[in-house]
Design a protein that fits this description.
The chain has 494 residues and is mainly α. It folds into two domains: 234 residues, no CATH class; 219 residues, Hypothetical protein af1432 (Orthogonal Bundle), CATH 1.10.3210. Helices cover 67% and strands 0% of the residues. Helix 6 packs parallel to helix 11 and helix 16 runs antiparallel to helix 17. The N terminus is likely disordered.
């Protein structure tokens, strides 16, 4: 697949290596302390489990090996993610908090109440599906070691069998959790689906209950509650982790696109034309993001806020001039261009001031790149005898640095251009969108972002489909006056 730009790997420094090694070493020690604490709480002595030095070394080696596998995975799969020691610490903290909750619920309440899908849910919402699957597999292996060596038992007398049983249960519960909740953006829906997460645990309790002739209904009820417990604890911990590690989850994006959100409410009240434009762009951007496999909710959120900088001077933008008065008629082209292009910097400043995600602020700044404002450039040429400096009529950039910023750039310009068309047939819309994309490619607007030519073609087709759906042709209604029709007499008996 040919790319406009190749994927950029961030260079590692000596400090990056040192910090990551330090984080991994500290967290290995923390897990060893967890093990000692587990044995102490369960009234077991170290000598009961580690009868000799070799056995203790084996346990340590297994823990170190599991975390080494995690480091190798991220080094090859997502090196940029691993570069930040903060990300590594986030993964470790998720595993540590999950172990504490699992141990507390299993030891003090019931072994089958443990929220085995908690790691999967937290990692899924804070990172992505692939990372969630991998981290959950590692956590289940760590939990297996703790269960096996610390003597935690379920219905089986042999703690190794119990540990193996719950290794399988944990993996299946988490797989169900990831599959059913990866596209969930509502906390209520997450709670509703959480009962599906309990199904593997219920099955794993039911099988030995029947085979061993047990009547442990308490264990069965706890198994049913394990899924909702995973979802509930996830919703409690998620805002804390989100704030501490400066991550943005799908729930946060859903809140930002609510029409009651502060800046969106201001757009509705102060710049209704810009708001309506942003709504159309958001639908287009979401469709494009879905089509090429990037985050549709992030694309939608960025589209909602991409023109929020127009709130500083809403009357200076055509879509908000409902009274027909255009202030630019009394301004020089240079001043008009400066006002128009400043909405990108104003948007960035406003978004950051309101502590919205930086990804949203970046799109405010980048969605026009360094494109020229041709309307005022042409106006200046008419009023000037000499040459006109085109740079005075260009946005100051930067160019889009992400695929989503590129999507917003295309969708924004395409919506505005299509709205101005008199004939909005599919052929005309396609011609306009292609012209917009070709102009931006000619001026190198996509050279700083990771987007392929294939993705650009998919985006073009998606934008055209969306715009022709929004601005579809309508039948011409006949000019018949209701005064000519006697509705009251119809249907009366003669």
């Amino acid at each position: 697949m040919e790319k406009v730009t190749s994927k950029k790997l961030l260079p590692w420094t000596k400090n990056d290596y040192i910090l990551n090694i330090f984080v991994y070493a500290i967290n290995v020690i923390i897990f060893m302390l967890f093990y000692v604490a587990t044995m102490s709480i369960t009234n077991r002595e170290v000598s009961e489990v580690f009868s000799d030095a070799a056995q203790f070394i084996n346990f340590v080696v297994l823990i170190v090996f599991i975390f080494a596998v995690m480091a190798v995975y991220f080094a090859f799969e997502d090196r940029n993610f691993l570069k930040s020691a903060v990300n590594s610490e986030m993964i470790f903290l998720i595993m540590e908090l999950s172990y504490i909750v699992c141990f507390a619920s299993g030891f003090y309440v019931n072994y089958y109440l443990r929220p085995l899908a908690l790691v999967a849910l937290l990692t899924l919402f804070l990172t992505n599906t692939r990372t969630a699957v991998f981290v959950d597999v590692l956590f289940c292996m760590v939990l297996f070691l703790f269960d096996a060596f610390s003597g935690m038992k379920g219905m089986f007398e042999n703690n190794i069998i119990s540990a193996a049983y719950f290794l399988v249960t944990g993996l299946t519960s988490s797989a169900v959790a990831i599959y059913f909740t990866k596209n969930v953006y509502s906390r209520i829906k997450l709670l509703a689906l959480s009962f599906l997460i309990s199904v593997p645990t219920v099955i794993c309790v039911a099988i030995p209950t029947v085979s061993l002739g047990s009547n442990d209904w308490r264990a069965l009820l706890c198994a049913v509650a394990s899924g909702p417990l995973s979802a509930s604890v996830c919703m409690i911990l998620l805002p804390v982790l989100e704030s501490f590690f400066k991550k943005v989850t799908c729930f946060k994006y859903a809140e930002l696109t609510d029409h009651k959100a502060k800046l969106i409410k201001r757009l509705i009240e102060q710049a209704p034309g810009t708001f309506n434009h942003s709504m159309v762009v958001s639908n287009i951007a979401e469709a494009c993001a879905t089509a090429i496999g990037v985050d549709p909710l992030l694309a939608r959120t960025c589209a909602y806020y991409h023109d929020v900088g127009k709130l500083r001077r809403p009357e200076m933008f055509k879509e908000n001039q409902t009274d027909g008065v255009n202030p630019h008629n009394d301004l020089t082209p240079e001043l008009s261009a400066n006002i128009i292009r400043s909405h990108t910097q104003d948007g960035y400043a406003l978004v950051m001031k309101n502590r919205l995600p930086k990804a949203v602020a970046d799109v405010c700044l980048e969605h026009h790149g360094t494109m020229p404002i041709l309307y005022f450039y042409d106006k200046a040429k008419k009023f000037t005898d000499g040459d006109v400096d085109i740079l005075q009529f260009c946005y100051q950039g930067p160019k889009p640095k992400t695929t989503i910023a590129a999507i917003i750039m295309i969708a924004d310009a395409s919506e505005a251009a299509t709205r101005a068309l008199k004939d909005r047939s599919r052929e005309n819309v396609l011609e306009v969108v292609r012209k917009i994309v070709n102009e931006r490619m000619k001026l190198g607007q996509f050279e700083d972002c990771e987007i392929t030519l294939k993705e650009i073609n998919v985006i073009i087709n998606t934008v055209v489909n969306s715009l022709t759906g929004v601005y579809h042709s309508r039948i011409e209604y006949p000019k018949v006056s209701l005064d000519e029709i006697d509705i009251t007499s119809s249907g009366e008996e003669e």
